[in-house]
Write a structure and sequence with these properties.
The complex is a heterotrimer.
Chain A: E1 23-28, E2 40-46, E3 49-56, H1 64-68, H2 73-81, H3 88-103, H4 109-138, H5 141-162, H6 184-206, H7 210-216, H8 224-229, H9 235-238, H10 246-249, H11 270-300, H12 318-323, H13 325-336, E4 344-352, E5 355-363, E6 371-375, H14 377-383, H15 385-388, H16 394-403, H17 408-412
Antiparallel strand pairs in A: 1-2, 2-3, 4-5, 5-6
Chain B: E1 28-29, H1 35-47, E2 50-56, E3 59-64, H2 69-78, E4 84-93, H3 94-97, E5 99-108, E6 113-122, E7 127-128, H4 136-148, E8 152-153, H5 182-185, H6 187-192, H7 198-201, H8 213-220
Parallel strand pairs in B: 3-6, 7-8
Antiparallel strand pairs in B: 1-2, 2-3, 4-5, 5-6
Chain C: H1 20-30, E1 35-36, H2 42-51, E2 64-65, E3 73-77, H3 82-94, E4 100-104, H4 106-110, E5 131-133, H5 140-156
Parallel strand pairs in C: 1-2, 1-3, 3-4, 4-5
Helix pairs in contact in C: 1-5, 2-5
Classes of the chains: A mainly alpha, B alpha/beta, C alpha/beta.
Amino acid sequence: MAQVKNRLTPFFENITFDREDNELILNFGPQHPSAHGQLRLMLHLQQEQIVKAHPDVGYLHRGMEKMAENMIYNEFMPTTDRMDYIASSSNNYGFALAVEKLIGLEVPRRAKVIRMMLLEINRLMSHLFWLATTALDIGAMTVFLFAFREREYLMDIIEGYCGARLTHAAIRIGGVPLDIQDNFIIQLKTFLDKLPANIKDYEDLLDTNRIWLMRMEEVGVISTEMALSWGCTGPMLRASGVAWDIRKEEPYELYDEVEFNVPFSDKGDNFARYRIYMQEMRETAKILYQTIEMYETCVANNETALMAHAPQYISAPKIDIMTQNYSLMQHFVLVTQGMRPPVGEVYVPTESPKGELGFFINSQGGPYPYRLKLRAPSFWHTGILTDLLPGHYIPDVVSIIGTTNIVFGEVDR
Amino acid sequence: MRAYTPKDDVQAKAYYTDRFYVAPQVPKQDVENDEVFAADLAAIKAKFEVSDAYIQVSNMVVYINAKDIYGVLELMRDELDYTQLSEMSAIDWLAKDNTFEIFYQMLSMKKRKRIRVKYFIENGQAVDSVEKLFRCADWSEREMFDMFGIEANNHPFMKRILMPYDWQGNPLLKTYPLEGDEFAAWYEVDKIFGKEARDIIGPEIRDTARVDRYDSERFARLGFEVPKGTEITDDMPRTEQKYQEDDGVFLIKKYDKESSVIVDDPQR
Amino acid sequence: MAQHKVNYTQDGGLPVALTSIDKIVNWGRSNSLWALTYGLACCGIEMMASGASRFDFDRYGTIFRASPRQADVMIVAGTLTKKHAEFIKRLYDQMTEPRWVISMGSCANTGGMFNTYATVQGCDRVIPVDLYLPGCAPRPETLQYGVMLLQQKIRANKAGNAQKSKRLM
């Protein structure tokens, strides 16, 4: 059958004929090579300088909040993976923590340590990815290849743990389902020993590079008031002068037992954010060394529980399910009908690599949440482009989008 | 006659309900237990009407009137140091009493406290925009409008944000099915090819358990593929995974399974 | 997936008699498949990983080009939403022939786990697809094997100037 013409007429968005001034409307379309996903920015340009920017999102809206109202809590866990798909375990963890706070569960210590390890490995993966794509956008392709090489080592470790490279679902409500495998710690230590040299590689390539400095310094300055007003969190906020890190201020898991510093800056430009990300990678390595020791202490103290003991909400360990009848029955009921948390509401923020990732769950006692709102940091980091971009030039758009670390799975959910 | 299913909440329901099950409540504490919250609540109560307040999972929840929201948030931002609006959205209670519950999640970094400000509105009522106080409400209220149909007064750009501009329907309402109504089902076909193409392209296949007889036949022979119509016997040879054609490609090195090396070391 | 008939024969094409010019042209086309960067969601990350240091894509002659006019193959990696469907059709139309489409991942094949109102249930409702890669997200090795299969398919077909229309519309 011959190709029938479709109804899509060409539209000339970037040429308007009825204006007298020299303003050009440029459509930074939903598909663009800057690898951040589906952002559509409509820029009003006055000879290369932006006078108005209008970000249009929603091209990856998959209806996750509505899915949650139709799925049981455990069933929704892999869907949270796809929110911030670069650091999947962070989203899993945020959701698990929210449900655990709703129920009032206490997670065993070994599971907490493993969760922290996974979270920090995900933080490293996310920051490496951020570095790779930002550098790629600005033109430093070598850093892209180097950072992806490190990321591959990390993904190997996680793949050995839970079987998936990118979308982990490794953290469940009540703990973790799997213990870390034998060579996890060895691989992790090998990686961490090489990490400072690698970070130094990147910094040597970029820190004093004239092109990098010209593209990054004094570009995309976010003042403290703008950052607070726009709901910026995470490195965006810390670059603008507010030293707020949820891991330190409202500690969850075992973050109050590990020592690490939180870098922050008061310049607020791209370069400040870049330096914060690099420094955070080093701090994450510190945390990981400490968690390895904590894990070995757990092993020495013979604390083997990996999931919380709450038979009404959490299934028993597999060995019990396979041998004890009541555990099997309870597991069957929990899988087919779902756990029923108490009636109430909870909002739990966690520090994901991108910022404050929050889960608001309103439960009415049923197996499906009544309302689940996912607070994604990148949503407002994309919104801030409306106020941030005017006054900059077109090349600055790319570097600003790069350093705001937007991932569209989160923005659109 | 099929049974009547009420359409005011078409989300998935638990198929087993226990009529004797009384759901426990997440514990609520009195505001007096925490001094910071008590002081904040007193400051709010001094100027605005508060219908209920309690602490739940270390967040204070305050119920106010819909018309006071701008004043309350202004008070909280300027005097009580709640400088960041983390989140705002709505909850659909249309099936229960035809209201929406709007919540605002506030954060104070100085005090390390979070407060949730909530109020109820009727179906069709609009809320006041707090975008002048917190710029993040700009996008949050657009999302609320998109998903629930709740408009915000004095908003600079009250248009859909996550759905396309010409979408009809508010997805997060309980009356909206998860898989979308008829408008949603044919949206992309209508937009790109026109209504005439609906028959040619066919409806969406939303059945997750659909079994296609021929697909299953082929799927069952995954690894042992044969051309269509071949007689199947038990000793079919396994499909060889070919990366290139058998007689090789000009100038491209031929992949030879025997001489290839399997790299095991992950630190390569 | 769409309900039109799909050809499942083994080598991706019926055996046709190829002249030597066909062979040369096909050899050229298959070994320099320039891919359009169409990373939409998580599969896009795996596509980038397959183009990065460990799983290099450059050895296939594949360079990721951003402009559809310069691209041969569009690798739809990620969820196609209804808001975006119009744009993928536009970009597909803007690609110059000969062009192929690889649908990578569950979301692009059939809508994936997102059985919701905003997801197109398979990008082949909108554009004709040559190769479907399963997985969520498919490993980079899967994508590379998929590209090799596509290369075999290209080499097995006649290299006429006008590609036979593959779509029911």
